[in-house]
């Protein structure tokens, strides 16, 4: 029996390894006569998998993309696409040439997403030292107009975060920074600020996991501590893991760090082990959607991105007090599910400013919905049940309100039908903002909308266990 089990396991591993393709020396950019290349691992025949971009360190002056090959294999075996890239080095190429190369690789991978089975809306970056610095800026600087190129998460291993206080940068670190900047640091205040991740932190930035040695002399941990403080102030999700008694490297906490990294990428990129049942980026219209009032909804194409806009109040009356701006996803009858949605409010600030997510939808008088409202009360910022009667708040835990800052946010509902568990997340996918347990409806359709406001929706992903359509 043991021999049979061993053979079975060996065969499974062999098939898995054979299924992973490894393409080396893929040209992603040309600069003059030089070709910049990346290596990529992906599962043959797979579609819509999250991507982790791996960016090597080396003081912006050295290193090689092959440093990540072994780790890429482990990532690919867990259902990700993994890519590692080269970039031009200082001092021959000065800033911002390195960032431009990394951004070009990102754009290349998005453009070739279908070829490699990538979900372009679920991309993260992972880098160490100088690679951590570049990973941070890749995620914090999509101030470029292509909104669809946002990262979903950044893992930063001991990367520098602040260059503006040049008097505090000494020794080898100062030498490397001078090479990067093309000479002396004096009179370079503006470019040093632009190259500092700390300078770019904002409310809707992607989450950041930072791991940093407490004894790091080359890149002192104080920079990561300051970055984390700024993230807390701006309400950017993330975590700082100080690696005790560790210098500029992985140190003794390697296993714990790897577990944090694995959980971080799962929560922000993978999202679920269930089947991806539906994905919607609104590039092909709205034929899959069923709104209560089609005239209140439209597709907007802007800055290279398409999204579904609830731009007016729906001409729709409900039999009981409940939302009337609703658009349901067709053929989305699910029991257990995870629903991820990008959304942004387009209404002026007021107490009940909201957007809503719908699930367990049976008919217009029977369903659940999540009300993401600015200020919580009996009728706002909660999980609600509509059961042939005016909506009732059923959340057991919830926050005091949802911070609708300007820009795009990410929301998630996680539902377990058998236990009745419902969890709601907003930006931070590791800590729910609302929870409850309810088994009134164990399956139903999902949708998006608002009680009576306006807003935009995009990058919708639905994982779940499909229920056969009721007759």
Give descriptors for this structure.
471 residues, Jelly Rolls, nine-stranded antiparallel β-sheet, eight-stranded mixed β-sheet, 9 helices
The secondary structure category is: alpha+beta
| CATH level-4 homologous superfamily of the largest domain | Alpha/Beta hydrolase fold, catalytic domain
Overall geometry: elongated
Q: Percent range for helical residues? A: 10-25%
Largest sheet: 9 strands, antiparallel
Overall pLDDT confidence: 92
CATH topology of the largest domain: Rossmann fold
Number of domains: 2
For the terminal residues, how far apart are their CA atoms? 47 Å
- Beta-strand percentage? 25-35%
Q: What gyration radius follows from the Cα positions, in whole Å? A: 24 Å
Structure description:
With 471 residues, this protein is an alpha+beta fold. The chain has two domains: 2-270, 3-Layer(aba) Sandwich (Rossmann fold); 276-466, Jelly Rolls (Sandwich). 22% of the residues lie in helices and 35% in strands. The protein has helices at residues 2-19, 69-77, 97-111, 113-116, 130-140, 171-181, 189-194, 222-234, 254-270, and strands at residues 20-31, 34-43, 49-55, 81-85, 118-128, 153-157, 208-213, 238-243, 276-280, 289-291, 297-302, 305-310, 325-329, 334-345, 354-363, 366-373, 382-387, 392-393, 397-398, 409-416, 421-426, 434-437, 445-450, 455-466. Strands 9, 11, 12, 14, 19, 20, 21, 22 and 24 form a nine-stranded antiparallel beta sheet that branches. It has an eight-stranded mixed beta sheet with strand order 1-2-4-3-5-6-7-8, with helices on both faces. Helix 3 (97-111) packs across helix 5 (130-140). It is elongated, with a radius of gyration of 24 Å. Mean pLDDT is 92; it is low at 7-15.
